[in-house]
Amino acid sequence: MTNPERPARVVRRRIDGVLLLDKPVGLSSNAALQRAKRALRAEKAGHTGTLDPLASGLLPLCFGDATKFAQSLLDARKVYVATISFGTATTTGDAEGEICDTRPVAFSAADLEAVLPSFTGVIRQQPPRYAALKFEGRNYYDYARAGIDIPRPTREVRIDAIEILECALPRARLRISCSKGTYVRVLAEDIGRALRCCAHLAALRRTASGPFRLEDAIGLAALEATDEAGLEALLLPVDAPLQDMARLDLEATEVVALAHGRTVAVAPGLSGPMRCYGRNTGFAGVALATDGALRAVRLVRS
Predict the structure, then answer these.
(1) 115 with 138, same domain?
(2) Do 64 and 84 fall within a single domain?
(3) Segment 134-146 mean pLDDT
(4) Boundary residue ending a domain (187, 209, 231)
(5) Are 56 and 123 found together in one domain?
(6) Are 87 and 105 in contact (CB under 8 A)?
(7) pLDDT tens figures, 17-70
(8) Which domain, by its residues, includes 269?
(9) Domain for residue 11, yes or no?
(10) Are residues 191 and 91 in the same domain?
């Protein structure tokens, strides 16, 4: 006999594609993913770059075969709008931490603009104490919470551009275009130090990831209120993250050969990863061209 107090079991199904989600503040990326996965009743899903609970904005979610190509979005350039609060530093570098230092804000908007070029290009950052990076098998934040200092080697990141959107000191809003692995809260702290002050990240919103833009995303509440047909209509195709990759059209027999682990002859001038399409079957996956031969890297299910 069915227990009326037990929630009905969700029947999962195969869903392939990319969903652009506008993650709200206060929710982890994984929690947002699980809610979207449940709304779509999807068998398999993954996100493409963590946003802290404090942060909001664009979180591309990959379902089914699209998860095979999520790395391209993990590696993609990101754009953020960051609100920096000057004059106060926190234990975590953002608004979730406790205030640990205060200093006068004795600089102008012009001074802020003058220091920003020193943070563009390839720079080195020391990851924050509260980070999900690992040292000897444990997350940095585990050591931080225990009051234990550990080595935190600097890492190379690239800041393509920083633009002041608004400056009403002690706060400023900046648009930051950067590589993967960039800690915007560390950037906020470093900018504060360059101005002989201190600072923390008050708010963060991701507005772009690779080819995708926030204005094309759907909020979580709206997503959960959408019927099943509407949800499927929101999905972008599996190859959507790969549009910057060179395209190669193949015969059906060549797609079959790749699927069986065989190489396919291609023009000697072709080199590097290729997004491959069967002439009558559509997107087949990614293959690598070297020395006139094409070898499968990751193929979609037939």
Answers:
(1) yes
(2) no
(3) 78
(4) 209
(5) no
(6) yes
(7) 999 999 999 999 999 999 999 999 999 998 887 888 999 999 999 999 999 998
(8) 245-299
(9) no
(10) yes
pTM of the model: 0.90
- Examine residue 107 and state whether it is found in any structural domain, yes or no: yes
Same domain, 48 and 61: yes
Residue 211 burial by Cβ neighbours in a 10 Å radius (0-12, 13-18, 19+): middle
pLDDT of residue 41: 92
Tell me which of 52, 65, 94, 190 is the catalytic residue.
Answer: 52
Q: Is 52 a catalytic residue?
A: yes
If asked whether residues 26 and 133 sit together in one domain, one would say: no
Question: What is the per-residue pLDDT across 283-295, written as a single tens digit (0 to 9) for each?
Answer: 999 999 999 999 9
Count of structural domains within the chain: 3
